[in-house]
Specification:
This protein is an alpha/beta fold. It contains 8 helices and 15 strands.
Length: 243
């Protein structure tokens, strides 16, 4: 379990908790925080108690258990509301594409980005230039198509890459090295992918994180965003499923 705070353009801090290959995010302002995708309650409670903070809200990108396992315990302990897509995980407020709300003192835009599931959501913080993409978009990768369909995921990825290039990308898992190794095999003559892979290896060897990435970096080196059409995307995503 690893904690990594990231300064933003606002006084709010974004803290990453790595739990296995899952990534849990805390939006930290003063002593009332918001958590995104708490796959582990214990990891979140540890961070809260360490800083004398409490939870204002729980946000969910999609209702898979590795993103929601900590919801029940956190909701009981902190009496905080749960917001996200529909699902059987204790949601109090179902969020929909286009909604705007405030949490942790900042404005959050809800983006519908289905494809991994039927109802994936991303949370875009314009003031912090950050987007939390769940399992739709990863560093150098994207999620498997479980329920939403290839065309649906293709459109969702196009929507995310239309965000400003400077936007920081916080995905739901850290598969960065594996994704880049796959990308290097699929695009063997792509210099930017090879350079990003080399950089990632150096960072990991030195105990440092490769994350977050940016929309610009994903547009330049994410193999799924380099696909020119849906059929190419479909073939590549199928190849990655068997990687």
């Amino acid at each position: 379990m690893r904690f990594a705070p990231h300064a933003t353009l606002d006084v709010m801090m974004i803290t990453t908790i790595q739990y296995g290959d899952n990534l849990i995010y805390l939006l930290c302002r003063e002593r009332r925080w918001t958590v995104i995708d708490p796959g582990s309650a214990r990891a979140v409670v540890f961070a809260l108690e360490k800083h004398g903070a409490t939870l204002e809200q729980i946000l969910i990108t999609h209702p898979h258990g590795d993103h929601t396992a900590g919801v029940a315990m956190l909701k009981k302990q902190y009496a905080c509301p749960v917001a996200g897509p529909p699902g059987d995980y204790g949601v109090d407020h179902v969020r929909h594409d286009g909604e705007i709300f405030r949490s942790a003192g900042t404005v959050i835009h809800v983006l519908g980005v289905p494809g991994h599931t039927d109802h994936d959501l991303a949370y875009y913080l314009s003031a912090q230039e950050a987007v939390f993409t769940g399992d739709t978009l990863f560093a150098a990768g994207c999620g498997r198509v479980i329920r939403g369909g290839m065309q649906t995921l293709w459109r969702s990825l196009a929507r995310l890459q239309s965000l400003p290039d400077s936007t920081l990308v916080y995905g739901g898992h850290d598969y960065t090295l594996d994704n880049l190794e796959f990308a290097a095999v699929m695009f063997p003559h792509h210099d930017a992918i090879r350079e990003r892979l080399d950089t990632a290896r150096r960072l990991i060897d030195n105990g440092r994180s490769c994350l977050p990435s940016t929309i610009a970096e994903e547009k330049r080196t994410n193999p799924f965003l380099l696909c020119r059409d849906l059929e190419a995307f479909r073939r590549l995503r199928t190849r990655k499923d068997g990687w």
